[in-house]
Amino acid sequence: MRNWVSRLLVVSFTVTMAVMLSGCERHSKSEGYYLVVVNSKLAYWKTAAAGLQKAAAQYGVTAEMRGTDTFDPQGEVKEFRDVIARKPAGILVSVADSALMGPEIDAAIAAGIPVITMDSDAPNSRRLYFIGTNNLAAGRLGGQRVVQKLNGKGNVVFFSMPGQPNLDERLKGYQEAFSSHPGINVTEVFNIKGDSGTALDKASEYLGRTGAGKINAFVCLEASAGKDVAEAFKRANAKDRELVAMDVDEATLALVNEGVIDATIAQKPYTMAFYGLKQLDDIHHYPLKSLSSSYAVDSFSPIPTFVDTGTSVVDKSNVDIYMKSVEDAQSK
Prior knowledge:
alpha/beta; Rossmann fold; six-stranded mixed beta sheet; 12 strands
């Protein structure tokens, strides 16, 4: 009896160790994962890159963010093609132009490379799913803030890049929030064309308008314009206008704390990239039956259609919490 128990314990220990060792061997530095973006020098993408590298370090794999230094959708397509040629284990991509990137994503899927979109989607492509902000909801959140600050009446301008899917969704959310307030008038949607410096000049022009044409609220739908519009506010000493920005980089939070920016809408780029790499890794090691299946309409799909990483309004009442979060992240 004792011999039998001893043999059972040995077998159990051997099986346990084999499972543990196989788990350790699951990951390898030879596994390459990529995040492809535009405007890669923005603080927003540096935060995302930190999340990407954190997940890669935990899993013992290789990860790299690739992208253009400016808003260059064609350049992003080239970067994406270069990444495909490397035959990676998986790709995350923030889509600047869905018409341009959609066919490239389909080509990657056809080549057996899993692709997940993050931050900005290409819903008509064969990407597996989207991880990021519910941009429509983010726009509604910002719109409610503007309505509140203007008491339901005033002229509003937007700084955006029309054609970029996530920004268009945010604009739609604002418009929905304004729809039940006929006193709110959208005067113009200004295209910064990837150059936030143009936002400063245009904001200065808007601030010069008086009378019935006075602009009461300025809304930035992407991260970089907020700081430049805020600079225009400072130069004009504009204290009777409202400015709502996007994202929680250090400079934007400082401007909220200072009172120049009334509020900013927080996203989670770190979480998007961190979670995105882990999901690609899981798909790489436990492959789907087919990458090209229509999982969005499959009630028994092993993957979601959309992972919402969340949004919130940051203003004077809670900005210190976000500033502390940035400070803690920098100290690690």
